[in-house]
Amino acid sequence: MGDTSEQDERRRRLAAWQASGRTLWRNSADRPVGERLATLADDASTVYDLDEWTDVYGGGVVADLESKVAALLGFPAAAFFPTGTMAQQVALRCWAGRTGNATVALHPLAHPEVHEGGALSVVSGLRTIHPTSEPRLPTADEIHATDEPFGTLMLELPLRDAGYVLPTWDELVAVVAAARERDAVVHFDGARLWECVTHFGRPLEGIAGLADSVYVSFYKSLDGLSGAMLVGPSAMVEEARVWRHRYGGQVFQQYPAALSALLGLERELPRLPSYVAHARVVAAALADAFAEPAAGAGADVAPPWFRVHPRRPHTHQFQVWLPYDARVLSEAAVRQAEETGVTLFRRWFDSGAGPPGVAMTEVTLGSAGLEWTADDVRQAVREFLARVETERTRADGTAD
Asked: Which residue, 76, 104, 78, 77, is CA-closest to 89?
């Protein structure tokens, strides 16, 4: 696989994904700068009057976006933040002051615990406890059984690092009630809340309304440039604006991010239920193909084991696990894209806490993936596994 820099490998992957005629998901962040700017300039007028003045420290299109999201989620107020990390830290800090308890109950796989460098404690002076370590959100019984008091329960919906998993609606209602019985407030990490409506069978407003505050992202599912929104009670959101300034989030102008968020709400949000439905078709076809890959494509033996998780995805994203080195799988994936014009998988990652030689990838189903039939998926898996065998042989030869 050669001694190339990560930047070279990234360029290679981007070129292969961009050139692919068939892919499950096209991420706008993978496109060249000029192309993305041109698209935003061409499309923005469909969601906002471009003769209006730009925003300055809020106002303008940013204020319009805040009003729209507050109404959509059923809250009286909303504040735009440059990042979800900042929005969530501010929310939890505000609630700590109001409850008089700086302890936050959350899952050990929640975003602040895994992806933020310990910011809740280092930057915000908060302490975290874990009601459960199971790869799912806590149950009501686990909330009741937590040994010490906490001021806020934070629930990540869906729990991304456990496989984009969600509780049932009744379980979610029960866990929120259990937190309230313990005199705690409830905050939803709703970075991907937008795609939860299919699983819960409830509108966005009904889901968000269970919590005292909610954060949502604009780039993860809505294909925006960046940015996040914190919604909650008016007094709490006003306090959050003060903390946003203190944290360095009072950005001079943010109209490109706000315009792209409005476009995402207009275009991607209505499509998400169709992505979720088709992700279930794709996941089932992947499982079938890994269990019984067809002969004749160079890979007529199934992997020793595999895992599609959840087997029936809760959202339009899910995990796939295989018992091979991540570098082998990533190379096989990019070669498939380069040689066939089909991107089935993107990057693979070592299992981390698990045994060596086990890797995981995340699959996202977007508009491009709606064209795939189950047969298309099965054929793509056969072609992928053929390249996996080639790369494994090459890697073994290099090691020798």
From this structure: 104
